[in-house]
Amino acid sequence: MAFRITFKKSVSRDLKKLDITEADRILTKISEELSEKAEFMPELKGRFAGLRKYRVGEYRIIFTILNDSILITRIRRRKEVYKN
C-alpha cells in the first residue's frame, strides 16, 4: 500500500539547511521507499512514542502514520534529531 506523503511546515526549514543534493536524495528516498514501506519502519519509544524513524545516510526522517498518509515531522542529522 502506498501512503500519501505530507510534510509539517518545520520540515521545509530543515531541508533549507541541507545541501541541495542531500535534500534531493532524501526527498527521492521518501517518495520511492518510505511511501511503500512506512509500516515496517521502527517505532520510537519514550517521549517520542507514536512516531517512527527512517534513516537516509546520516539523516533521520521522523514521521507518523495517519490513516492512509504519512506526516513527516522532522528531518535532521542523526545526532541532532532527538534534541528539543
Topology, pairings included?
Blueprint: E1 4-7, H1 9-16, H2 20-37, E2 52-56, E3 59-66, E4 69-77
Parallel strand pairs: 1-4
Antiparallel strand pairs: 2-3, 3-4
What's this model, at a glance?
This protein is α+β, with helices and mostly antiparallel strands.
Structural class given helices, strands, pairing?
Answer: alpha+beta
Give the radius of gyration. Answer: 12 Å
Number of domains: 1
The tally of strands reads 4
- Main sheet properties: 4 strands, mixed
Strand/helix succession: EHHEEE
What strand order characterises the main sheet?
Answer: 1-4-3-2
Mean pLDDT equals 92
* Residue windows where pLDDT falls under 50 for at least 5 positions: none
User: What separation lies between the terminal Cα atoms?
Assistant: 33 Å
Number of helices: 2
How does CATH name the architecture?
2-Layer Sandwich
The CATH top-level class label: Alpha Beta
- CATH-defined fold name: YaeB-like fold
Q: In percent terms, what proportion of residues is strand?
A: 25-35%
Shape label: globular
Task: Supply the CATH superfamily name.
Answer: RelE-like
Share of residues in helices:
25-40%
